[in-house]
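Methods — Computational structure assignment.
A single polypeptide chain was analysed. Its primary sequence is given first, followed by the predicted tertiary structure written as structure tokens.
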Amino acid sequence: MSLTPDVSLDPADVFARSNAAAIRALAGPGTGKTYALMQRLSRLIEEGADPRRILVVTFARAAAQDLVREAALLEGAGGLAPKTLHSYCFGVLGREHVLHATQRVPRILAGFERDILVADLVGDFGGKRQRDRLLKAFESAWSRCQAEAPGQPVDGLDQAFQAAILDSLKWHRGMLIGEVVPQALAYLEQNPHADERSAYDHVLVDEYQDLNRAEQRVLDLLCDAASIAIIGDDDQSIYGFKHAHPEGIRAFHEAYSETEDVQFSSCRRCPVDVVEMAQALIERNPDRTRAELRPHPGNPPGEIHHVQWESPEAEADGVAQFIRARIAAGVDPASCLVLTPRRQIGYAIRDALIGRGVPCSTYFQEEAITGDAARRALTLLTLVADPSDRLALRAWLALNSSSELRGAYRRLYDRAREAGVDVAEVLDQLDRGDIAIPYSGPALARWHELQTALGALRERQDDLTWLVDELLPEGDADLGPLRHLALEVLPEAKDLREFEEQLRAAVSVRELPEEHSDVRVMTFHASKGLTADLVVLVGLIEGFMPASDDPSESAIEQERRLQEQRRLFFVSLTRTRDVLVLSSYATIERKTALQLNASAGRPRGSGRVGAFASRFLGELGPALPVAVRGADWKRSRASA
């Protein structure tokens, strides 16, 4: 097995025509992996493969949608249905016999509902940060690294946490979105005669480096008698928080003997200087597998700006002014992308752009329900659609809640489980005076408030347009994002229950629209797979990019996380086709630095402290221009 590319061969052609039972394409950004994937599909179908027995798996839904459109152009590809691994596994669980076997209800929790249930767990599981870590390990089937086989937990704390969270989820009749793959994996492993195990002759996987060990194991089980072809890049592995690590694609050949490797190293997307900077950066990471990324002959040199502002406020104003000027000069707003390490920074950029009349949208996961008002609206909608929804009732009792209400719910919950009824029935009994539970007054008051709200909504619950206007009135800034999503899904919903389910799905995964006409603002992570003519990376200071060290982690863990942050910066740099702006600032409010865990220097007056430009900027090599002051940059832009 050789990892040295043969430049005399077209890697896409090699990948398409290989007859190896296992093939690994190591493809850098902008090197044509989607084209190669479609070429392989075309060749398989031309040679008589049944499209219905070809599984094409992607990591992101947007990528799956792109491949669906591409596949529709292939002659004879009817029945081919590219999908995310998550949607494939949800489809497996959705079959009636599997649901019966797992004894679970596929009602997916929203993020705030998940946080409530995890906080409710009784046990010595530590604070929020420790519980979140345990939850992520649970969702990855306890395989925290490539060497650990997914399955049941061995550690006592892991076992106790799994027992507690599963008990709560089963009683509340819900499922975590991160449970879907482990649940499907358990079914496939325990049922070797399952039809799914022999359903495919060929499996093609995009962005393999983004899969954790449990997700990889699902694919292994589908490939007992099928060929497998994967495309990915260990330099773009950025999902360590869900225990996906670059070792997965690096060690692929150890699981599949006689793997054939193909190297894609010619970047057709990015300007020459951007490719050189990106390569200089990523070479700092050890144990890399992919060959050196090179600019394709004929790529433009690119336009790179390196700017430091006095403050985040000055950055937002200056970046917005620059983007507005470029749009006025003919750049399409839809081809402008602003990437940020923190959503608060993104909102400031968005507001500055909108203030200048530039159309702009933000794309942050579950941003539509970040406030209590939106959570209240979604919870009420759920309870109108399904009054027996135990999760929504728990969420209602937690809104604006105190420790007093949490304790009250625990007493109601314990009584309900003892009596074999819903918490709603216990509250009804309390309301009638049939039973007495100490210190339940706050919960009963919230119950009365809920019945009043539901009574008014149920009178016109079949009028979905009225329901949206009533719960999500136009003009309310806090409810605007959720109202926007509700109006998007409303035309497709046949009834209230379907509308609620579709809205909940839209909230859980904030997907980019297929067509858009505005500037997009999102996190570095969310930009994976996107390209734009003008890309601006903002907030490039220590503590944001890279993020501050976690003192609870070992030195080895901190180094692994630093390497992943470097890969994340590499991904963000390589989104541009033309213009790249790298932006930092010199001061930040002390309060903001503490809230967002930024590295802070000496006091600078007026409640501000010094900020430090990201160390990654110093790793970009000689192609990086010297940094200029934001005020000077604005003046030079104005006079240009």
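Note: The chain has 26 helices and 18 strands.
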